[in-house]
Fold each of these.
Amino acid sequence: MRTDLPLDQHRASTGLVDVLDRVLDKGLLVAGDIRISLAEVELLTIRIRLIVCSIDKAQEIGMDWWRTDPHFSGAYVGKPAAENLELKRQIRALERRIEELAPHIADEEEALFPVAEGIDAAATERLRREHREIDALVARLAAVLVAGEEPRAVMHDIAVLLHDHVRYEERAYFMEVQERLPAELLRQVGAAISMRRVGRPSPHS
């Protein structure tokens, strides 16, 4: 059985190879613009600039962007692992921060807020609402981690909320309570919180 190509097909194949070899050696530039207009008003313009050439030719004319692209140059190797380690470190730090604040939040809810809400009900309700938001975000983060999804957005929301919450407490709410709450009530609140902390394990123990 003959396997020779017909003469015309052989010539076509040879011609195609020659053309491809010339394109790769010399380079081929394709340029064009696509404009979409409505009632003579230009809505969208797509500029097309395509260069086809060999790698050697691309380097010769200065188009060697893949050398500095970490995904192509090899610099990306090991980066995902390093990013995962950093992400795990950030998660642990956030978890420790939440553990530290959990007893503090419970003390406020049980010992401080019932007394202080008579002074500033709106501010007390704001802090209670933020406590619920923190709990909801922490639960959401746990679900995201279990599902193996990207947690950074939720972590950011938690960090921002915690920062703003603590900042408002320390710079506004606590100062108002200390100024307006009678000394005896302040003493009772302090004693109640101290009693709650007796025997309480440290978050890091």
Amino acid sequence: MAEYNLAHKNGYIVRADLSKCIWNLKLELPNDKGGSIYCELADTTLDRSSGKVLSGSSIPFGWSHTGSQIPVELKVIKENGVWLIDEDSTGGDPS
């Protein structure tokens, strides 16, 4: 929650980019309705008013939402032909 408050106070937006997603076959077999995936995660912190990427020097010390992050495990579902994230099953703090 502390990072959410810091972001709100400073006008930050965190953009999360997922890449290199693969099915988690150890947890469950995927089907046409959904399954579990692992993805690489990279965060970029943006200025809310300008939309520009903030450099590391303009972000407070300890801000963790920049660069490569620990890979995430997600549950995905398919609705109307589109894959959607149903839940984050990594157990991480959503703040």
Amino acid sequence: MEIMEIWDLYNEQGQKTGDTWERSRAKDIPEGRYHIVCDVLIRHQDGDFLLMLRDPDKEIYPGCLEASAGGSALAGELPEEAARREMLEETGLTADKLELISTTRKPESRSVICAYLAVVNCEKDSIQLQQGETVGYQWVETAAFLRMIQQEPVLKLQYPRYKPYLDTLEDNQAPAAKRQESHTKFFPADDLRTSEIHLRLDRTCDAQPEKDWVPAYYFSICLPDGAKIGQCDLRIGHNDRLYIGGNIGYGIDEPYRGHHYAAKACELLLKQAQRHDLKYVIITCDPDNVASSRTCQLAGGQYLETAAVPEWHNMYDEGKRQVMVYRFDLTETPDSICIKVAETDEELCGRGYVHCTSWQEAYRGIVSDRYLDSMTVEATTARARQFPENTLVAKDKEKVVGFAVYGPSRDEDLMDAGEVIAIYVLSEYYHRKIGYRLMNEAFSRLGEYHAVFVWVPEKNERAIRFYHKYGFEFDGCKKQWNPGTPVSIVRMKKKRE
């Protein structure tokens, strides 16, 4: 049974009249009477704004982006109480403080819209969608948000109520960019290397503010023996031109493609960007360049939008009309996570702990509770000690927080392929891109094989999304696995590019 929604009515002085009104009769609210509507603009502490994707079945603006959580205040609710309730219902988020941005009277809809700002500190993938209201969400950086809110259909309608706050952001954008452009101190780059590649600094260029050029590094991507296999560059700062062109550019010579060298070079450049106190880095690519898009994903980028190239940009003159925009958050220091081969008994014990704990975290609802509850760290550690070969561990200082096991194929129909046998990360580290880094290292160590495959429970949607992003596809093979109760598992394979 549908619950009837009742509103308080207010007069033109903003005082309650003592009357209430049913939502089903909203069109009949008398002239001079209003009900309260609350909107909440949600911004993360790192500066990004939350956009919600409206359900495609909604009668008004189906499938459009909106920049708020909101709705009508119920009878007995104060405006801020209603804003907090709507925010929790539509996103699952709470905020210590709501700041009132504006109050707008809308005589045509007999409503008064109270617009609030909420600054949150949450995991960015923790948003909870409300059935029938929203079907997706995305976080966008300030520059993109300021552009989108004046272009998207619903956002344009919301813009006037948020304008008093957004104007303060626009006023601060240009001075900040100019301060960054004038920063010309360059840092040593001798340590930008892995076991597979190193970046050889070729030259640096100072800022040229009159051309909107920021300080830049230019590198050759080299193998350990010094052979050059490509090039990359890093541009230090942020402005409108770089939002389209990106902070990082790269290219790998054709004979050396298929080894994820571009993604590994990008990870090294992110390390250099942190030395300049950049909070984030933008990389863009052509929407038709699947390989470059995959590079951005492998390096840990978050897709923001496909942006139009403005006519004043030099890329427009080159024939480019759109770019995919990826953001790389640098607020968490990747250097604190080390990927290495397991060499000590303490590291194998750590593998055992991650094995037991991550199974109990990730497989709940997939594998029987009875089996998961019977697992012990002692048993999984014993297995790690029994089969220590080809084990990679991810360590946060001295703590093992993830591991991967790889080797030659165990499947008779794919004897010429490599296999990633296991890859697990503790849930508290899900958002640190550790799974990608473990997979990068395992994939690299299986370089002699033309393809690599994994087996994954058919109901493990999170893992399947991860493998899809990395480039694995289902190959049609399926079988039963029996950890206490039968579980259907499917095989996914990735061929080298």
Amino acid sequence: MVVALLGLGTVGKSTYNAIINKESTFFNDILIKYTLVKNTNKHRDIPDNVLTDSFDKIINDDEVETIIEMTGSSDSYYYITESLNKRKNVITASKEVISNHFSELEKLASEKGVSLLYEAAVGGGIPIVNTLNNLSSINKIYKIEGILNGTTNFILSNMHIEKNDFESSLLIAQKRGFAEADSSSDFLGLDMVRKISILSQIAYKTEIDNTKVYRFGIQGITKEIIDIVSLIGYTLKFVCYSELRGNSIYIGVEPIAFKSKELFSSVNYEYNVIRYYGNHCGVQTMVGKGAGPITANSILNDIKLLYYGYKSNYSIENNYVIIGPNKDKCRLFIKYKYKSKLENIIDADFDGIALTKKIDYDTLINNLDNISFYARIYE
């Protein structure tokens, strides 16, 4: 199989090395003909005949069968659509492009008789995409929940375990390569919106508009909140979820407090966890590293699937209504501004941080202007 790599970042370099160094006999049949980078002078360890800054050169070479897109750039959508139109298989790590153009790209791949694979877009090295693709053909998957962002999970773990404040935990995450200089999309929940959108579209075979996915970020978290949550026997996590009920999908991203004995409480630092529910498969859980070089495992797995004849077969079968947040009544940890406005819902108060009675989401939304942070209690 002749392939071209687009991008030589952390994931791209790990993928390149695995193939070039023949870390498995399988890679004897994989040839990297091109590697696309912005500046060829920065990658002198790559042979000149392989290194290129010209996408046109790659896309117009009929020998190239598969494009492996790992640029993480604004050009990702262009690279993917052009490659599919040229009847080349595409493997991509772009969660943003896949989540926003899911059905469009799947349809294009089908029309051109090629395949689109995107295991690396969700869960790092965890093979959740292919798993759900397989299971959804024989199961009715009706619920997905997970910690799917290594940056925020690292920070929250650091705050709980090492008792650091948010700023110190972020700095440690950045020094260890688990957080970007600008991690706002992580804190705001945008990254997990894209990931739960992809998994939900696979599982429920319906289109999902990302703008309808509810989200409440963790940018308002403080050490004081973590201390109170821990004191009462809970661990705070940043979680995404979706659930199919009848013809509606409840889908969102928000902070959730788990009892310390719950599995999600023990998944820490850069690790991710995904739990899904189906009528035949029951409850299944997958845990693994969610970011970094291990993501190359997902790219390599997609290469192997293509090599052995995998063909995309996704189709939109349903037209479910996207509701937004889970609207079940629940208790919350909240950091409030004015207690007098919340007297009727507070069950226990810890001087600015409170544990509420069971309330519905309409009550929460109506009081958000007086709540700087909340975490739903998982029960």
